[in-house]
Amino acid sequence: MMINTEKFQADLLAWYDKHKKPLPWRLSRDPYKIWISEIMSQQTQVETVIPYYERFIKKYPTIKDLAEAEDAELLKLWEGLGYYSRARNLKLAAIEVQENFDGVFPSDLMDILSLKGIGPYTAAAIASIAFDAVEPAIDGNLLRVTSRLYRISEDISLGRSRKVFEEKLRGLISSERPGDFNQALMDIGSTICKPKQANCDSCPLADYCQLAFSEEAVNFPVKTKKLKQKDLYYAALALQNSSGEYYLEKRPSTGLLANMWTFPLVEMNKKEYEAVLSGEAIQSLPDLPESISRTAFLDKLTHIFSHQKWHIAVIQAIPEDRFEVAEDFLTEDKLWLEDMSAIPLAGPQVKIFELLNK
DNA sequence: CATACGTGGAG
DNA sequence: TCTCCAAGTAT
């Protein structure tokens, strides 16, 4: 079945004009705002993004503001969104724009693609939405919709499958309204042509779709990759001084939860972890200001990342053991704090803190 | 190319 | 409770 491209575009864009989601970043064509919205939207649902986006634009209205942002403030603003390297890369890219493009966000696709944190999808999205570049922005939605339109069975988990989808979309995209074309397909994908429900009754593309009203639709796209989390076991040490402040450390600048703050964590195997749960003392304490003679098991919790599952036993130094520490022990990476509102904390630490204040 | 990288919503 | 998924990118 051959698709009439002009008619397809007309139907799709007419639907978009009537039904498009009223998103805050769609009020502007400022590439900076489009960029921020696209980065935040990676692997994140739109409803989650909106309040973060509003706060971000208010705090950093221009690229220059972002380039000069303070790292901790930026991370704090990103707290809870996940994939924190996105925030670090945003600032790095803003600095690149200052230095390499005179502070003006580039309009050329390859220039955009050169920026830190921007890959093929985001570059095409920004180029098409902000600069009318005729480039398909191929995200999960477009992959799903396209796979159903053409009954494409290539496994989207494999990088080499990309060209099949790209070829089809290049043949369909509107050269007059490429940005709206991309966003229209994203909206169709997120509101109608969903992973486990195709809803062809309300789809403006049903006439063109090889899998319209077919029970097969939900089996597309084909995706093989499945993730399995690794179980990791920790004791988290809640150490309070006589002022009621907790001892926190900054995590390394690379890897999981880079640069975020944490209660000291002691990694252990499952057997040791279970021993701690049953009240036994921790075998190997980390390098702390003073040794802790007496600890008590408080409670346990779990936290699931995309690739790890943390089992955390929260351990408190009992009140009699509250200790003071010499000021010179504390550095930029170690501190005592009662108010957590000023430092970036990730999921596990937030949960631990809530547990302590229960 | 496979894996690391967060979190919250939906069924 | 469990599994999959959501506007991906870096390495």
UniProtKB/TrEMBL annotation:
One of its GO terms (biological process) is base-excision repair. The keyword Metal-binding applies. Residues 40-191 form the HhH-GPD domain. Keywords: 4Fe-4S, DNA damage, DNA repair, Glycosidase, Hydrolase, Iron, Iron-sulfur, Metal-binding. It catalyses: Hydrolyzes free adenine bases from 7,8-dihydro-8-oxoguanine:adenine mismatched double-stranded DNA, leaving an apurinic site. NCBIfam families: mutY (TIGR01084). GO terms for molecular function: 4 iron, 4 sulfur cluster binding; 8-oxo-7,8-dihydroguanine DNA N-glycosylase activity; adenine/guanine mispair binding; metal ion binding; oxidized purine DNA binding; purine-specific mismatch base pair DNA N-glycosylase activity. Binds 1 [4Fe-4S] cluster. It comes from Lactococcus termiticola. Its cofactor is [4Fe-4S] cluster. This is Adenine DNA glycosylase. The gene is mutY. SMART domains: ENDO3c. The keyword 4Fe-4S applies. It is an enzyme of class 3 (hydrolase). Adenine glycosylase active on G-A mispairs. MutY also corrects error-prone DNA synthesis past GO lesions which are due to the oxidatively damaged form of guanine: 7,8-dihydro-8-oxoguanine (8-oxo-dGTP). PANTHER family: ADENINE DNA GLYCOSYLASE. Pfam families: HHH, HhH-GPD, NUDIX_4. Its EC number is 3.2.2.31. Belongs to the Nth/MutY family. The lineage of its organism: Bacteria, Bacillati, Bacillota, Bacilli, Lactobacillales.
